[in-house]
């Protein structure tokens, strides 16, 4: 039985897992694959979902489920693979029982990430098979097929899905397995296997050898994970992988080069079955490898095919290792190579889709608690500087930044790197510069991801550090997943006390003066101080926020306004607008009624009407 549905790469991953009979899913949310879990949660399929607090935990839990015979799916983004690297280095030696599939959303071009790190190099480090889909339909097919491949080889299977495919939509042909569909729920069990699972000493060497032999067997048996297109007699070859394939296919067709180029798309990029490439290269004079990022496929091909072919092979000497390869870059190269720049390609029917659109960076939503929190931080550090008599220094102090909604423009922090970099880097600076005005920041999602350990490390090392926890009760940046503070299962204040934090301040995120005052008090104390800034995400309003939005109105009285522009230029709330008459006004269609502006205004020019209904 088959059916066709319209969906994107996230849908394809979820539907494929369902149709393959997945039993267990664990993830840490991250774009571009953050929506997979939402699709899985919408279904009534019988599987267990584990919302892990970081990728390390997610990887280990999936390994445990697979050892019990469950078909298990692990989902994360590319930078999350760094966190999961430790357990995944051991994943293949365990000889899992149930199929274990690891889907990683990659981000060439850094559209949804702080970096575009190329994680392909983890495949040879883990010695795990790596499949790369070229279309949304391939995403579905590869994920569904990977469970069976994993069980046959007793190896976890990696599948990399770039943002171009994760967000791309198309018709997806689904083929649910009738065997899986009609089968009763399997009986899971864990079998003790000390020879494999107690992986130390001589056992570690033996298990590593067996792992490599299984991988070698997988490589030898995988003879069909590639496709060729256009003219096999052509002397010019193009080799691609993943999303680059579709671009190359379309460009070769549109430039009318189908008779002059032979195209090879490699789907299994590790371990590479070099025979498909050697056969492809037999009558070639020149081969170009076109792929995003560092040139992983090019490296593997040149290593495996060294001395076995006669033609020229080029790749990253022609195309950049940064950014995402696009149509224009590849088209210009091929047009120049084949001297068809001057050829007109049916210009009458050509669709010009180029739009000169300015960059529109994200920013805090109206009613976001981070907006007023950062206003309070800036104000406190500036006042501390002035109190210390530093009237000439323009910098207000150092603000350690972390990943999350708090990292959105206008980027009020002094660095933005990886998860827990806010508190981590700040510790090194605070240790060396104890007199420097410094606060570290991070959301509650980041705290439970790994920041709690960093915080305890600061306590143990007696570092003089003020850390601010932005608690909006949601892992909002990647899809509004629940955080431990939103479920009510954790008492954060008691938890902080338990790890040795002696000074804890609790403030309202929407009252910036409370944040400022807490920072000023904290700087007078020694040791680790935590300021717990509480304010719900505007896109997940609590009942009180919904009541305020329905019943509250805010107005700016222009006769009282002194045009200080603090609310407009420094708080930068999008709901406060400048009219054609150069007057400030609150746009009630956008205002979330958080009243953060009320605390900012020094002239009492903003009025809150809580009696208005409708």
How is the secondary structure organized here?
Layout (H helix, E strand, L loop, with lengths): L2 E6 H11 L4 E4 L8 H6 L6 E4 L3 H13 L4 E6 L2 H12 L8 E7 L15 H5 L3 E2 L4 H18 L3 E6 H4 L2 E6 L3 H5 L11 H4 L3 H21 L4 E5 L5 E5 L3 H11 L6 E6 L1 E3 L3 H8 L4 E5 L5 H9 L7 E3 L12 H11 L31 H19 L10 E3 L20 H12 L5 E6 H17 L4 E7 L12 H4 L4 H7 L4 E6 L3 H11 L5 E7 L8 H9 L1 E4 L9 H5 L5 E3 L5 E3 L9 H5 L5 E4 L5
Parallel strand pairs: 2-3, 2-4, 4-5, 5-7, 6-7, 10-11, 10-13, 13-14, 15-16, 16-17, 17-19, 18-19
Antiparallel strand pairs: 1-8, 6-12, 9-11, 20-23, 21-22
Helix pairs in contact: 1-6, 3-4, 11-14, 15-20
Distance between the termini: 52 Å
The name of the CATH architecture of the largest domain is 3-Layer(aba) Sandwich
Strand order of the largest sheet: 3-2-4-5-7-6-12
Mean pLDDT: 91
- CATH homologous superfamily name of the largest domain? Thiamin diphosphate (ThDP)-binding fold, Pyr/PP domains
Sheet having the most strands: 7 strands, mixed
Whole-number count of domains: 4
Task: Find the structural class using helix and strand composition.
Answer: alpha/beta
Q: Radius of gyration, rounded?
A: 28 Å
Count helical runs: 23
In the CATH hierarchy, what is the class of the largest domain? Answer: Alpha Beta
CATH topology of the largest domain: Rossmann fold
Low-confidence stretches: 342-348
- Tell me, briefly, the overall form: globular
Beta-strand percent range: 15-25%
Q: What level of helicity do the residues show?
A: 25-40%
Number of strands: 23
């Amino acid at each position: 039985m088959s059916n066709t549905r319209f969906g994107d790469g996230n849908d394809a991953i979820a539907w494929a897992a369902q149709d393959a009979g997945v039993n267990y899913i664990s993830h840490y949310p991250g774009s571009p694959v953050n929506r997979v879990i939402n699709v899985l949660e919408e279904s009534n399929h019988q599987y267990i979902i584990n919302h892990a607090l970081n990728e390390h935990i997610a990887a280990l839990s999936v390994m445990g489920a697979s050892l019990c015979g469950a078909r298990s799916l692990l989902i994360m983004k590319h930078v999350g693979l760094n966190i999961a690297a430790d357990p995944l280095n051991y994943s293949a030696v365990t000889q899992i029982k149930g199929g274990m599939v690891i889907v990683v959303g990659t981000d060439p071009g850094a559209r949804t990430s702080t970096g575009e790190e190329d994680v392909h190099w983890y495949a040879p480090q883990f010695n795990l098979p790596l499949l790369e889909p070229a279309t949304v339909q391939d995403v579905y097919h590869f994920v569904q097929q990977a469970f069976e491949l994993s069980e046959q080889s007793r190896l976890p299977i990696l599948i990399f899905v770039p943002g171009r495919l994760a967000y791309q939509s198309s018709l997806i042909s689904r083929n649910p397995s009738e065997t899986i569909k009609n089968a009763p729920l399997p009986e899971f069990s864990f079998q003790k296997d000390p020879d494999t699972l107690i992986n130390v000493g001589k056992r570690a060497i033996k298990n590593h050898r067996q792992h490599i032999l299984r991988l070698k067997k997988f490589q030898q048996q995988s003879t069909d994970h590639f496709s060729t297109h256009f003219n096999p007699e052509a002397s010019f070859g193009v080799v691609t992988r993943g999303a680059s394939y579709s671009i190359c296919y379309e460009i070769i067709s549109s430039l009318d080069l189908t008779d002059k180029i032979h195209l090879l798309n490699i789907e299994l990029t590790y371990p590479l079955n070099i025979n498909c490439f050697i056969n492809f290269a037999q009558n070639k004079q020149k081969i170009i490898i076109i792929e995003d990022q560092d040139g992983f496929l090019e490296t593997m091909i040149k290593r495996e095919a060294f001395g076995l072919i006669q033609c020229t092979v080029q790749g990253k000497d022609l195309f950049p290792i940064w950014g995402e390869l696009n149509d224009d870059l590849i088209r210009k190269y091929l047009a120049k190579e084949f001297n068809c720049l001057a050829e007109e390609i049916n210009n009458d029917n050509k669709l010009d889709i180029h739009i000169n659109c300015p960059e529109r960076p994200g920013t805090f939503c109206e009613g976001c608690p981070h907006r007023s929190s950062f206003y309070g931080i800036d104000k406190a550090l500036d006042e501390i500087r002035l109190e210390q008599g530093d009237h000439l220094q323009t910098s207000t102090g150092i603000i350690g930044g972390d990943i999350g909604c708090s990292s959105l423009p206008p980027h009020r922090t002094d660095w933005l790197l990886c998860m827990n970099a806010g508190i981590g880097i700040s510790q090194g600076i605070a240790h060396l510069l104890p007199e420097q005005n410094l606060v570290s920041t991070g959301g509650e999602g980041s705290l439970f991801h790994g920041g709690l350990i960093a915080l305890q490390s600061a306590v143990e090392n007696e570092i003089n550090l003020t850390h601010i926890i932005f608690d909006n009760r949601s892992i909002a940046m990647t899809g509004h997943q629940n955080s431990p503070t939103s479920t009510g299962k954790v008492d954060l204040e008691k938890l902080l006390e338990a790890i040795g934090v002696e000074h804890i301040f609790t403030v309202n995120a929407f009252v910036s003066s409370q944040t400022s005052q807490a920072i000023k008090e904290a700087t007078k104390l020694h040791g680790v101080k935590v300021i717990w800034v509480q304010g719900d995400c505007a896109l997940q309003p609590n009942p009180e926020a919904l009541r305020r939005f329905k019943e509250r109105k805010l107005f700016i009285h222009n006769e009282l306004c002194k045009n200080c522009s603090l609310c407009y230029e420094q708080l930068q709330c999008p709901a406060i607008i400048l009219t054609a008459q150069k007057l400030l006004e609150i746009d009630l269609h956008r205002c979330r009624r958080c009243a953060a502006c009320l605390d900012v205004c020094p002239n009492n020019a903003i009025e809150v009407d809580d009696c208005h209904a409708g």
